[in-house]
């Protein structure tokens, strides 16, 4: 069994969100150190959130893979500095047959993501390009789940992830306090089944889990 995750960089357990193994915790620490090292040059996370990186970014991202623990192949779109894509890859690092694809159009961030996967010994592929074209030309096999955080409106996320969800992939999107308005707007153009989970790190935010997504006929 794993031990409760330590959620601040000074090494004190500030809150328990779930069990992760010692190896996973070590990989997460390597990743956090890397984000902080590259932060001055790349601005990977909002500077105001640096002191809370373990809660605001790491713990928040743990919820992604936990949403679909059975999913083996993930696509994280608009990965930026790797939240949640790299964290998903770290959680799956010792799980044979798993793979995390990350699609990121910014070349420098894509280079960082490759470094993060290598340094943490995680399985993944970074696609340095626009989601619209990478997804349309996808030749990397079936996808079980799509994730996104801080990328676009729900309606646009459904559009961007359609090449995967049309073939049966599920989706999990992090959404802030305005989530209900986005759900209402997206409902006009899309059918979907949704499970709404209160974020473990922010009661105002939601993890929205979608399946059976399809475009409504005009
Ligand atoms: C606000 S950041 C969020 C990054 C990360 N998911 C997070 O939560 O920290 C959005 C990222 O998506 C990337 N992005 C935006 N539109 C994109 C597109 N059409 N294709 C690929 N990447 C895109 C940007 O370069 C940026 O790194």
Automatic annotation (TrEMBL):
Chief place where the protein resides: cytoplasm
Function: Specifically methylates the N7 position of guanine in position 527 of 16S rRNA.
Matching NCBIfam families: rsmG_gidB
Family: Belongs to the methyltransferase superfamily. RNA methyltransferase RsmG family.
EC number of the protein: 2.1.1.170
UniProt KW keywords: Cytoplasm, Methyltransferase, rRNA processing, S-adenosyl-L-methionine, Transferase
Protein name as it appears in the record: Ribosomal RNA small subunit methyltransferase G
GO molecular function: methyltransferase activity
Reaction(s) catalysed by this chain's protein: guanosine(527) in 16S rRNA + S-adenosyl-L-methionine = N(7)-methylguanosine(527) in 16S rRNA + S-adenosyl-L-homocysteine
Binding positions for S-adenosyl-L-methionine per the UniProt entry: 78, 83, 131-132, 149
HAMAP family: 16SrRNA_methyltr_G (MF_00074)
Organism expressing this protein natively: Roseibium porphyridii
Gene Ontology terms: biological process: methylation
CDD domains attached to this UniProt entry: AdoMet_MTases
Places the protein is found: Cytoplasm
Gene3D superfamilies referenced in this protein's UniProt entry, alphabetically: Vaccinia Virus protein VP39
Key word RNA-binding present: no
């Amino acid at each position: 069994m794993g031990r409760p995750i330590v959620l601040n960089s000074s090494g004190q357990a500030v809150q328990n969100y779930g069990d992760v193994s010692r190896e996973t915790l070590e990989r997460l620490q390597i990743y956090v150190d890397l984000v902080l090292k590259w932060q001055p040059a790349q601005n990977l996370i909002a500077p105001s959130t640096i002191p809370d990186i373990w809660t605001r970014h790491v713990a928040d991202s743990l919820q992604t893979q936990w949403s679909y623990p059975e999913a083996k192949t993930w696509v994280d779109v608009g990965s930026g500095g790797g939240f949640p894509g790299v964290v998903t890859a770290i959680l799956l690092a010792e799980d044979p047959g798993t793979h995390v694809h990350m699609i990121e159009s910014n070349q420098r961030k894509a280079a960082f993501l490759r470094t993060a996967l290598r340094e943490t010994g995680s399985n993944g592929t970074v696609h340095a390009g626009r989601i619209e074209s990478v997804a349309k030309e996808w030749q990397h096999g079936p996808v079980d789940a799509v994730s996104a955080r801080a990328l676009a409106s729900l309606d646009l996320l459904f559009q961007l992830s359609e090449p995967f969800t049309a073939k049966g992939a599920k989706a999990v999107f992090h959404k802030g306090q305005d989530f209900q308005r986005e759900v209402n707007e997206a409902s006009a153009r899309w059918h979907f089944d949704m499970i709404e989970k209160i974020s473990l790190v922010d009661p105002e935010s939601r993890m929205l889990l979608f399946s059976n997504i399809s475009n409504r006929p005009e």
